[in-house]
Amino acid sequence: MAKVQILDQTGKKTKEINAPEDVLSYPVKEHLIYEAVVNYRANQRRGTASTKTRAEVRGGGRKPWRQKGTGRARAGSTRSPLWRSGGITFGPKPRDYSYKMPRKAKRNALKSALAMKFAEKQIMILDSLKFKEPKTKEGLSFLKKLKIESALVIDNQENKNLFLSLRNIPKVKVVDFNQVNIYDVLNYKSLVFTQKAFESLMERLK
């Protein structure tokens, strides 16, 4: 079992707990991480880009000039893709970019990312994380004590004061342990867990 240190809200060490090695000592599989990030970003795409074909562009119903005798090239419509203000050939249309990645591969990619963060000593676990009031000032004070600039803070969504206190701070995001995804894990420098959230996530990834 891997040993991880538990800190209090001021950053002082309080105790050590055992963490499952099959998660924090999981081999870092870079290609699997890459595939999971591509999958996440594809699933976030709205797919609303749209262009008009020659059939959809307004106008162009009349033949611009007669077929023969003018010396000019044949033309049947002023909305041909060859013309200015014409339709677009093979342009984007609304579509769904999302696709499913195997559940096991997705889980293993997250384990790889967490193992990498653990090896780089960028995972911090607190015994608890409670604010008296939902104030950004309290959130800033907490981050300053721990010397954190960029962090993904992970706890239970029932801790409303925490979510409200940190939601407006740049380079900081708070999520429920059930909503941890690989993109956020890699996008923020530090991962700050509460002990309960950390143990719940480790149990889920076993």
Describe the structure.
The protein is an alpha/beta fold and 206 residues long. It folds into 2 domains: 2-45 and 100-205, Ribosomal protein L4/L1 (Ribosomal Protein L4, Chain: A, 3-Layer(aba) Sandwich), CATH 3.40.1370.10; 51-91, no CATH class. The chain is 34% helix and 16% strand. It is built from 7 helices and 6 strands, in the order ββαααβαβαβαβα. A 6-stranded mixed sheet has the order 2-1-3-6-4-5, with helices on both faces. β4 (151-155), α5 and β5 (172-176) form a beta-alpha-beta unit. The radius of gyration is 27 Å and the shape is elongated. The model has no long low-confidence stretch (mean pLDDT 92).
Taking all residues together, what is the mean pLDDT? 92
Any low-confidence stretches, pLDDT <50, length ≥5? Answer: none
What gap, in angstroms, lies between the N and C termini?
13 Å
CATH class designation of the largest domain: Alpha Beta
The CATH homologous superfamily of the largest domain corresponds to Ribosomal protein L4/L1
Which structural class best describes the helix and strand composition?
alpha/beta
- What's the arrangement of strands in the largest beta sheet? 2-1-3-6-4-5
Radius of gyration: 27 Å
* CATH fold call of the largest domain: Ribosomal Protein L4, Chain: A
What is the total tally of β strands? 6
What's the helix-strand series? EEHHHEHEHEHEH
